[in-house]
Amino acid sequence: MSRWNSRDIAALSADVLRSDPPLPNLLDAMDVDAPSETPVNTTPDPVSSEQTGLTRAEGLWFEDCGLIIQAENTIFRISRDWLALQSPIFQDMLALPIPVDAEKMEGYPFVRLPDTAEEVSVFLKALLCYGFFEAHPASTTFHILGAVLNMSHKYEVAVLWKHALTHVSHFYPTTLSDWDQLDGKSSEWQDDLLEEPGETSPIIALARRLSIDWILPAAFYHVSRFTEERVLLASDTLDLSDKILCMSACRLLEAPSVSDVLDFLWSPQVIDGCLSPEMCTKRKFTARRAAEKKRKRDVDEAPLMSLRIWEEKDWEILQVCPVCLPTLKIAHQQARQSLWDRLPVMFNLPDWAELKKRKADALK
Predict the structure, then answer these.
(1) Assigned CATH topology for domain 6-32+49-126
(2) Do 263 and 335 meet the contact criterion of CB atoms below 8 Å apart?
(3) CB-based contacts of 100: which residues, under 8 Å, 6+ apart?
(4) What are the residue boundaries of the structural domains of the chain, listed by start?
(5) For the ranges 60-69, 250-259, 334-343, which has the lowest average pLDDT?
(6) Looking at the record, which segments are called Disordered (predicted)?
(7) For the chain, what is the HEC assignment?
(8) In this predicted structure, what is the pLDDT of residue 199?
(9) Residue 81, SS3 per DSSP
(10) What average pLDDT does range 90-114 have in this prediction?
């Protein structure tokens, strides 16, 4: 994550200032005891939470802390110095000059963030509460993961950012071997996305917004498999270009790419050294016909598509001679690897080498 420049910080401070009535800059009156060059009686009277009708955040209101943050209609009371220690963005803001006439709430600095109350709550809990949000393989929900990704990226909290990246990077890997190790397994946060039709696409929108590019090939593949075309078109989380990418790639993954992966059952018709050419050829053709039937999209089940059109159990059914079997397995794996290598191109992304470099840079 790159540090914000002074213009970025000023822009965020401008967001904080937008309120009715006006609220102070994020760092207005951060230091309660700051020297004043104007008469004391010019300082506005403190506002109480009762007067504003705001709700104190449960579990995030600490009486011994001196900074009050508002997000929507929720207020949080935390330590100013602690927050600055966690985030270089807040730390830089704390270095800004402090107006003497800054508004306060209940006698303490009172600031407003442009983020949602839910995001701020998750963000502060992830920072404060041990075990609330940890790196993979700890369990989490998409609601929490998404908020941590957004807020840790925005405020440059490196530890939380890397923890969040371990979750998405594990389940949307950059290598075929890591993909195979998942073996169809999913996480709690991925299951959250699958509970409602069409809700697998938010991970792509999130990755696009936060430049988590290396998860996109596997994420696009996943979305193309689990999302029906009509649901994909109706999605309000993907832009039109990504919808087109998914639909175009889906045609490739369900047709030409499937044929490429299953070609090991066609060619060569007879493998050199085969102990029983007639039997092996017949069984390969029979297996190919059976595999082709898996292309059919069932409304209640996602299609297997290219990478899983031929599964481990299919080898047991094939029953070819001991000479043919290892040759077929090698050819099949080579075809799958070739498809995996082409995934980024299908979705108009940089090649795997570049994506792996971006991943390494983000997680170092």
Answers:
(1) Potassium Channel Kv1.1; Chain A (3.30.710)
(2) yes
(3) 34, 36, 37, 38, 42, 43
(4) 6-32+49-126, 148-252, 256-346
(5) 250-259
(6) 27-51
(7) CCCCCHHHHHHHHHHHHCCCCCCCCCCCCCCCCCCCCCCHHHCCCCECHHHHCCEEEEEEECCCCCEEEEECCEEEEECHHHHHHHCHHHHHHHCCCCCCCCCEECCEEEEECCCCHHHHHHHHHHHHCCCCCCCCCCCCCHHHHHHHHHHHHHCCCHHHHHHHHHHHHHHCCCCHHHHHHHCCCCCHHHHHHHCCCCCCCHHHHHHHHHCCHHHHHHHHHHHHHHCCHHHHHHCCCCCHHHHHHHHHHHHHHHCHHHHHHHHHHCCCCCCCCCCCHHHHHHHHHHHHHHHHHHHCCECCECCCHHHHCCCHHHHHHHCCCCCHHHHHHHHHHHHHHHHHHHHHHHCCCCCHHHHHHHHHHHHC
(8) 54
(9) helix
(10) 79
Pair of tokens at residue 190: 């991925």
- Here the tokens at position 162 are 């890397």
pLDDT digits (tens, 9 = 90+) for 115-149: 999 999 999 999 999 899 999 999 999 999 999 99
Residue 226: both structure tokens together: 């689990």
Residue 36 pLDDT exceeds 70:
no
How far from 168 is each of 23, 125, 190, 225, CA to CA, in Å?
37, 20, 9, 18
Residue 65 burial class via C-beta count within 10 angstroms: exposed 0-12, middle 13-18, buried 19 and up: middle
CA 301 to chain centre: 24
Residue pLDDT, tens place only, 78-90: 998 899 999 999 8
Taking Cα atoms as reference points, which of 168, 172, 171, 235 lies closest to residue 198?
A: 235
| C-alpha distances in Å from residue 158, one per residue of 17, 133, 146, 152 | 26, 14, 15, 7
Confidence of residue 29 (pLDDT cuts 50, 70, 90): very low
